[in-house]
Queue: 3 jobs
Job 1
Amino acid sequence: MESVQQVEPFDYIIFGATGDLTMRKLLPALYNKLRLGQVPADARIIGTARTTLDRDAYIARARDALQHFIPAKFLFPNLLEQFLGMISYVTLDGTSADSNWGELAAELSSSPASRIRVFYFATAPQLYEAICANLHAKEILTPESRVVLEKPIGTSLETADAINEGVGKFLPEKQIYRIDHYLGKETVQNVLALRFANPLLNAIWSAEHIKSVQITAAEVVGVEGRASYYDTSGALRDMIQNHLLQVLCLVAMEQPETLEADCVRNAKLAVLKALRPIKEDQVANETVRAQYTKGAVDDHAVPGYLEELGQDSNTETYAAVRTWVDTPRWKDVPFYIRTAKRSKRKVSEIVIQFRETAQSLFGAVPGNRLVIRVQPNEGVELNLNVKNPILDEYQLETVKLDAPIKVEGGPFPDSYERLLLDAVRGNPILFIRRDEVDAAWVWAESILNAWADKKAPMHSYAAGSYGPDAAKALLAEHGDRWHEDMV
C-alpha cells in the first residue's frame, strides 16, 4: 500500500476548469489523493474558465464528472461532499487584463501569502504567455507559486521557444512545471527501478547483450471528434516527440548520481543529445508514416482517417522511427519507436530483445526478451528458454515469467495523481526541463520537415491492423520483428 505522506496546504487554480481534461483527469486525481490521505483538509481547488457559471452549477458538473470517472466502490458519499466543499469557481478570461481578476485575487487573499499556489494551465498553449502576464500584473504570483504547463509545448522548435520565452518572462525555470503524463505512469517510473535496483539486469543492460529496443504506444480509437485538431499535429508530434522520447531516455540513460531532479534530467538530456540526427535525405529509410483506411475494430466497421476528416491530408496517424543512441553503451543497437491510431489492440510497452547465442550447449539459442507493459495489464514479462518436459531429448521451448504490477485495495493510480502533488511538493523530477524540450524538437524537426516536403511516402493500413507492411520491413533490415510477430 502507498504510504500516506500528506502534502502541505495548497491552492490549486485551474485555468480551463470546464474542459475535458479537468473533468476526466484532474478532479478525479485530486479526489483519489484525498481518499488516500495525501491532500490536507484545508486544501482548495479554484476552477476558472470563460464559461459563465455560479459555484453551484460548477459543483454540479464536478459531481457528475466524479461519479462518471471514479469507480463506484471508491466514491464515498461523505468524502465526495468533503472534496466538493474544497472547490470554488471564478468566471474568468485568463488572457484578458479586464476580466474578473479581482474575484480570483479575493479568493486567494483568504489564505496566507506563504501558501503554495499551483496554477494549472489546462488551456491551449498559445494562451500561456497571456495568462502569465496577467497573473504577474495582478500580483497574484508569489515565490511559492508554480505553473503547470500541459503539452504540447509548441509544434516546432520555434513555437516551443516562443512559449517558453513567453512564460519565462514572468517566472524562473524552477517555478515552471512542463507536464508529460507518460512520466507519471508507475510502470514508466519502474524502468529506473528495474534497471538500477536489479544487479542482474543492470549488468547486461548494454549493446553487448541487447540486440534491439522497441517502444510502442498504440490505440484502438481513431481521431473521431478531434480530427481537425489532430490534423495540425499528427502522430509524431502528438506522441513520439514528447512521450516516447522520454521513455527512450529512461531506457537508455546512464545511472544518475542521485534521484535528485536535475541529476535525472541531466541524464535524460544526455540521451537526447546523443540521438543520431536523421538527415532529411535519410528520413525515407529510417521512418515509416501512414494513415488508417476504413476497417474493423472489435468487429465494428470504422471509417478511414480521410473520411473522418472530410478532406485530403498529409498528416500521419501512424509513425515508426528507427533511431540510434550514439554512446558506447548502445553502439549499433537500433531503437524502434512507433505509435498508432486504430491499431488492432491498445498497448503501451517497452520490449528489450536480448541477443541470440550462436553457439552454446544447445546450438543456436533464441535471445531472451524482457517486456515492460506500461498499459494495460501493467507488469513485467521475461521470456526464458527451458527444456520441453514432454520430450526425452533436449528440445527447448520458450516460457513466459509474468509479474503483474497490482495495487491492493484500490485502483491502479492514474498518471496525473503523482504529478499533481509533485507540483505541490516542488519536486520537478517527473516534469520536463526546457533544454529537454529543445533537444527533442531539434531531433524531430528534420523528420517533420522531410514529411512536410513529401520526401517519404505516405503508406496506408487498415483500421484494426497493426500497421503498414513497410513498418515490418523497417525492422527486417536488421533481422528484427515487432513484438506481436514474435508471440
Job 2
Amino acid sequence: MTTEMICAGFGGQGVLTIGRFLAQAGMKEGKNVSWLPSYGPEMRGGTANVSTVISDGPIASPIVSYPDVLVALNQPSLDKFGPMVRKGGVIIYNTNMCPRGCNRDDVQLIPVPMNDIANEIGSSIVLNMLAIGIIIGKTGLVKYETIEDELKSFLQEKNPDLLDKNLQAIKKGIEIGKQYTSVK
C-alpha cells in the first residue's frame, strides 16, 4: 500500500514538520518513505508545502502530483492543491483559515476548526500535531506510539514544556479522524 500526501500552509504553521514526523514514523515502522519540502525564500509567513510518500513497497518518485491525502492549513493551499487530490482521496482542511472551503464531491472532506481546537488545548503551535492526529485517525498510516516516541525524543531537547500539549493535540486529532473512517 502506498499513500501520497501533500501538506500545505503558510510558513510557520508547521507543515514541513507534519510531513517529516510522518515520514520518520513510517521509516521506524520499516516502511519506505520520501519527504520533499518546498518553500519560498521568505519561508515564515510565505507559503510552504511538503510531499510525503509512505509505502510498503519501493517508491518510484518523491514528487506527488495527485495526492491521496491533502492537509490544507489555509485557503491558498486548498485552492492550489485541492483540485489535484485523487478521486476518492481525502482533503483535511482548517476551517479557521479556509473560509471558502472546498466544493469537491468526489473526495472525502474533513473540515476542522484547527486554530480553535489548538487554542482550546492551550497553544496555537500544536495545530500541526492536531493535523498529524487527524491523518493517523483517518488513515492508520502510522501508529500513535511511533509518533509519540518521535515527538518525545525531539521535544525533550528542544522544548519539553510543549510535549503534553502536543500529545493532547495528536490524541484529539485521532478522535476527529476516526469519526470519518466509516464515512465515504
Job 3
Amino acid sequence: MSVNALEAALWQLYLHPGDADSFRSDAASYAADYRVTDKERELLVSVDVMGLIDHGVNSLLVLMAFQTIYGPERLHDYFDIVNAPAA
C-alpha cells in the first residue's frame, strides 16, 4: 500500500496547475510517475473519490484535488459522492 505516493500525486495536482493540466490530458501518464500499485493507479486515474478515501487517502486532500481537476462548479458532485448511502 502506497498511500503516501497517492497523496503526493494528489498534492502535486493541487499545488501545481500545470500538473493538473497534465492529469486532465493524460491521467494514466501522470499516474505513471508515482510508485503505486495497479489498484492505486486505477483509483487515481479514475478519481475514485470513495475508493481513495477508503484506501486511506486524506479526504480533505481528495476534496482539494477533485476541485482542482474538475473546477469549483463540480464541487457539489464530490459532496454527493461522499454523502451517498453506502452500497
